[in-house]
């Protein structure tokens, strides 16, 4: 199943995600959408991408129902966002000498992560990394380029069998 994200001009960081007949509010990157994603630009990339993997905090959530590959996070998991690293845009185990983002967070936004297959086959240095679907912040603040959903909506997407996302310009 394919899910679709639509953003309307003037709607700020808010978009609509369509999964079957259900329409959900999504939050996107602070600087909107782009067809020319670059590391650190705070934009969400446009295109059609496979959903690769699901990670979850087993200390906070039961394993979600999904047909995607599933793994529990550990406090030693991170994601490399260093364009000079051979591990760029990949899961890394901490400590890691290269620049990275920690996936085990004090807040809840990474309690459930779906890796969007953007810039990963192969990764082009500097073209953007760590593009996920994850949980929204309570204040619905923009992401750094990811797609954020309410927990119930992200669980619905996984249970519906979504395998790919099209982020429409």
UniProtKB/TrEMBL annotation:
Pfam families: YkuD. The lineage of its organism: Bacteria, Pseudomonadati, Pseudomonadota, Alphaproteobacteria, Acetobacterales. Pathway: Cell wall biogenesis; peptidoglycan biosynthesis. GO terms for biological process: cell wall organization; peptidoglycan biosynthetic process; regulation of cell shape. It comes from the Bacteria. It comes from Acetobacter vaccinii. This is L,D-transpeptidase family protein. Keywords: Cell shape, Cell wall biogenesis/degradation, Peptidoglycan synthesis. The active site is at residues 134, 146. Residues 1-169 form the L,D-TPase catalytic domain. GO terms for molecular function: transferase activity.
